[in-house]
Write a structure and sequence with these properties.
By secondary structure, the protein is α+β, with helices and mostly antiparallel strands. Helix content is 29%, strand content 31%. It is built from four helices and eight strands; from the N terminus they run E-E-H-H-E-E-E-H-E-H-E-E. The chain is globular and about 35 Å long.
């Protein structure tokens, strides 16, 4: 993909195979997975498979999660972005645009999630012409719930997953 977004501190670009080690560092951390099904990566091959899946989404949908790079140091701090969900049902929904992000723990609480979120929402609404953006978070993930609320998402409802874990469903509408 040729798409690159920039914010004052971040570069948002397609995910590449050379990102695997930094993504593995993030996804092998149990703290990062505290609100993500408690399944941190054990082998780097899992990250390569994820990158392949994301690159396939770029080809099929023209969008997906993007590597998020700190301009000042060139460090990959995680991923952010929009994805079109059509491979499963979430809270009774499929075929919807989902905003999400995951950051390496050492980059938490620095405003990067909010900064990237604002850039993605602007791109999604103004360039992609998305009418409704969805997001979902673990009900107990206070930081992520706060970020979504801060960038304008409206809490819709709590819902249980198949394991009985409660999640929060968020939406943001844009009038074209």
């Amino acid at each position: 993909m040729d798409l690159v977004l920039e914010t004052p501190r971040l570069i948002l670009r397609e995910m590449r195979h050379e990102d695997a080690e930094a993504l593995f560092e993030m996804d092998s951390n149990p703290n990062v997975h505290n609100y993500l099904w408690q399944k941190p990566c054990i082998e780097i091959q899992e990250v390569y498979e994820y990158i392949e899946m994301v690159q396939k989404q770029y080809q099929e949908r023209g969008i997906g999660r993007f590597s998020t790079i700190l301009k000042e140091t060139g460090e990959l701090i995680g991923w952010t972005g929009i994805k079109f969900v059509n491979d499963h049902i979430e809270n009774g929904n499929t075929n919807f645009y989902d905003y999400g992000y995951r950051l390496n723990e050492k980059f938490w609480n620095k405003g990067y999630a909010t900064e990237a979120s604002k850039a993605w929402l602007e791109y999604g609404f103004n360039t992609m012409k998305i009418k409704t953006m969805n997001a979902y978070t673990h009900a107990q993930n206070g930081a992520s719930n706060h970020v979504l609320q801060k960038v304008g998402f409206q809490f819709i409802e709590d819902y249980p997953d198949t394991h009985g874990v409660t999640w929060k469903w968020w939406q943001l509408h844009h009038d074209l």
